[in-house]
């Protein structure tokens, strides 16, 4: 299975990846594009620009080109689409030009796990974090993935609860798929 973990920043994606990595030791974990690019010397603006999110989107699409099985992806193209559509300069983003590439990349996933912000937020934020952007991206991701207005057609599992409960929901879903 090729599984992507999606959600806004500070929602618990990386923690879920860690839990799943322990429970699915044969799976290869692919770090999120931000960290990959940063390790390669890419310098992000603060706050990130449209170009920065486009760079992460392109890397996320490229990451999905790896045909290996049993992979866990920390983020997927829809994450960056959510950030781009919520960005204050979203008009500079050419959605129509990117949609075919995003759809093609998502077809290479077997499951997309959505980690949303819960009503009682489990994550505490520092004063320097942009809570408005976090909430806007969470809302946009839920719209993109649960309503599927761009016909991505990827199977989405929305999880909630503690990190262990979220991992258990994913495992139960995978077991159901194996039947």
From TrEMBL:
<protein>
    <submittedName>
        <fullName>AAA family ATPase</fullName>
    </submittedName>
</protein>
<dbReference type="Pfam" id="PF13521">
    <property type="entry name" value="AAA_28"/>
</dbReference>
<feature type="domain" description="NadR/Ttd14 AAA">
    <location>
        <begin position="2"/>
        <end position="164"/>
    </location>
</feature>
<dbReference type="InterPro" id="IPR038727">
    <property type="entry name" value="NadR/Ttd14_AAA_dom"/>
</dbReference>
<dbReference type="InterPro" id="IPR027417">
    <property type="entry name" value="P-loop_NTPase"/>
</dbReference>
């Amino acid at each position: 299975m090729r599984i992507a973990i999606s959600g806004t920043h500070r929602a618990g994606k990386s923690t879920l990846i860690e839990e799943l990595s322990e429970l699915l030791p044969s799976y290869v974990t692919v770090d999120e594009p931000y960290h990959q690019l940063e390790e390669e010397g890419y310098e992000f603006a603060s706050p990130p620009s449209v170009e920065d999110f486009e760079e992460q989107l392109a890397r996320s699409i490229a990451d999905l080109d790896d045909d290996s099985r049993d992979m866990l992806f920390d983020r997927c193209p829809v994450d960056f689409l959510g950030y781009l559509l919520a960005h204050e300069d979203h008009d500079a983003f050419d959605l129509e030009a990117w949609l075919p590439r995003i759809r093609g990349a998502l077809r290479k996933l077997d499951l997309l796990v959505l980690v949303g912000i819960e009503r009682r937020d489990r994550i505490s934020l520092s004063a320097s974090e942009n809570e408005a952007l976090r909430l806007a991206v969470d809302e946009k991701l839920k719209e993109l993935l649960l309503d599927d207005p761009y016909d991505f057609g990827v199977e989405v599992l929305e999880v909630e609860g503690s990190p262990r409960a979220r991992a258990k929901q994913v495992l139960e879903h995978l077991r159901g798929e194996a039947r």
